[in-house]
């Protein structure tokens, strides 16, 4: 039965945003008192949380499909839909998140770090929120957008200060059990350890973690044995401890040849860009099982040759606990030096420069594509694509609202610059997108006669004249009467008519 998983593919589905509501408020003596449709709720996010209590990705191996809650729909009486609850997925500290193309999105190395892996959809606006002085009674609402959906790869890379590497049955599990409180499985047959084990070592005032990596064999970097699956757990370690078996009974094996094979496999393993190669990190050698007389003799024989290669060598016995204290202090010294280097490098890191968006960046672009049926003009951008997804194309008023938004964004001017003419094929969004025949907006007196789009004369309640308008009309009437009397007087003086009416 599988008990440890350090690489898994998960399929995530964020929540969908709820649709806005179209509603008209009704009151006594006011059957059409204005729009009161509420907004739709936002869809829930899928969040990855680095949890120190999580140690494996086994749960996601068993249930790889995870979905967040959808947002609620808006309702009348200005009632907004509920926001979908976010789905928090706990992953072990040291988990690397990669997209479908293999690009690293985030490295969760700090406990408590949160990463929004799938963003929830946006809730649509109701007609109350869409109302304005020019659009007093919208007969439409915006739809909610779909949440992000896709697949991500989770890789667990053990965070430890020291990695124990060596051949199977070299005594790595016994060593970590003797140095720390860890209790890994120990047996006298190869590949006893099937997953990395972590142990915390306390030496005086120093504390560091040790990782027991499953045994390596020749060809591990090419996929043989278990080495390729678990060499990634060595990437984060600041120091390596080669555990060499001095009491092996296998023919053709000795500590020197074992070390050369392990070094060859470590050098063949590619580390991520920016990290120090494995063989360039501090390394110590532990000659294990010296409690066996023949093994002690072999350790005394090979020690000068290993020291000539530049290694610090320690003769140890996990059974008798011989040499473990000296080895622990040496490892603590390497770890402290590595931590000081990390602090110095962190202080020297360049500042992050945030560049604001250009003033002339409209947030979209027009791409001209040629095809069998002629030229196609494709509009790509976050805003136009989101607006199209929020539009109910069964509602003519909603389509007109979309056209107004695109015109204000400058899409029509961009299409003209790209060479589009009336009747040209325009696609909004990647792939199939939304296809339509473009007709430029024509300004005429139709809207003046019919009223602006989104208005309803039935809800126009303010028909009374103001005092200023009354005074203006009164003065105009008085001026007209005075002008009429003056005109009659001029005609009388000219003799056009007499006072007796003849």
From TrEMBL:
Question: Which cofactor(s) does the record list?
Answer: Mg(2+)
Q: At which positions is Mg(2+) bound?
A: 173, 193
If you read the UniProt record, what top EC class would you report for this enzyme, in one word?
A: hydrolase
| Gene Ontology molecular function | GTP binding; GTPase activity; magnesium ion binding
Name where it mostly resides. cytoplasm
Q: Which residues form the OCT domain?
A: 356-440
Query: Where would you find this protein in the cell?
Result: Cytoplasm
One GO biological process this protein is involved in is: ribosome biogenesis
- Residue ranges of the OBG-type G domain? 160-336
Oligomer and partners: Monomer.
Which named protein is this?
A: GTPase Obg
What is the species listed in this Swiss-Prot or TrEMBL entry?
Answer: Leucobacter chromiisoli
Q: Which gene encodes it?
A: obgE
